[in-house]
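Exam revision sheet. Question 4 asks you to relate a sequence to its structure. Input first:
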Amino acid sequence: MSVEKIAEEDLFQVIGEDGFRRFVGAFYRQVAEDDILGPMYPKHDLVGAEERLRDFLLFRFGGPMDYLEKRGHPRLRMRHAPFAVDEKARDRWVEMMDRALAEAELPEAAVATLKEFFHSTATFLQNR
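Answer key, structure tokens:
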């Protein structure tokens, strides 16, 4: 049975900034101790990385434009080029994001939309 998805441009209206804050926070609570992704994130900048991802997702899904104002165009492939994103890293990122979405207890339709985005974007960002 497939779950109806929310249109990407409506996602912010459905889960709000708090929803994004909850699941991005749940994701980053896993990162520091992860043997695959942890080394890609400087320990001193986990808070900054969390803020950048949250701001990007808020912008991407219809919320405030803070990300664009602070960082300009996302240029995701360029920003991730210095990191070895192979299939193993891609799969771990998706696994951890899926756990974070479950922990955040968002509406099922919002989770379906976000999972589709995260799975395809993670594949797009593979560079090894």
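Marking note for examiners. The mean pLDDT is 91.
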